[in-house]
Amino acid sequence: MKPDRIVFLILSVLCLFSGVCQAGVSFKFDAYSNVSPALKSRMEASISALLTEINRAGASATDLRLVNLNMEQAAKNRLTALWTDARFVCVDAMNVSKCLNDFQGYQVRGISIVMKPYDSSYGGSLNRELTVSLNKRGVITGVRPAWENREDVQQMLRVTGNGGVAEVAMRQELLKWVEDFRCYYNERNINALNQIYSEDALIITGSVVAQRKNTGDKAVTFEQKVNYKIQDKATYINNLRRQFATKKYINVEFDNIQVMKHSAKENIYGVTLHQKWTTTGYHDEGWLFLLWDFNDPEKPQIHVRTWQPDQVVVKDGVFTLDDFFIP
Q1: pLDDT of residue 216
Q2: Could you tell me the pTM of the whole model?
Q3: 19-45 as b/e, with b when 16 or more CB fall inside 10 Å?
Q4: How far is CA 304 from the centre of its chain?
Q5: Handedness of CA 96, 22, 66, 60 (dihedral sign)
Q6: CA neighbor of 201 nearest in space, from 269, 312, 293
């Protein structure tokens, strides 16, 4: 084969490979999505452009270019912050999903992605799903990796008794906010965390310490004791701000979620879940309880946050909605 023929073939393959890497990613709503044709088309175009840019930046290991996308600036900032810890790419060139209605607008779930972490400090799953939120005008308001465990999601959305369609919608909303809440820590989004905690939020953390104990026969033993620390919102947020400024990497994961609706108070929910917190040089696991107030669905608030190490929960049980008085 002539040398110029070989060069031509190599160039052709390289061009083809480059075309695949830069190919657009398409998104469509399924046939059962209840949204007007004009808005549907606009949202499909916005999500397609977003996924295409994610694949371009993910495949080329470069920064995201979000300036011309139909996204709120806060959503651009949040996605850029996520990108600093781990890139990702979409698995499928063609994506189809249902359009879910929520209180703020619309939501798309189930877009398959593969994480491309920068180093071994990333401890999550590589195969994830992406969730995209949009407002009622079709502008993208949030982009985040979804909850990893589908069984947890199904458990959270399962309604018993007389809840009906309204309760399913409420739990869908709660799921979205809990996912956002988790991502706020990964993004180091101190402003969002400051807004989501109520001004009078009660924040309790438990820790296990070894306490010296004299047995009377000159032997010394140690027993485990639980210390609880209570913080107000200002103290907690200031401590978080210092962590966010000094830690290179933060990853928060949730699983084993349980949801309890208050029996007497409207739009009050208790959420119990297992949390894994990993940051530069540190890892812990424990149980998180969050008391959510959805009386203003546009701006839900967390009134109580508790964290207990696994050892504490084995001995004393986890905090629940029944442990707190709500006036």
Answers
A1: 57
A2: 0.76
A3: eeeeeebbbebeeebebeeebbebbbe
A4: 19
A5: positive
A6: 293
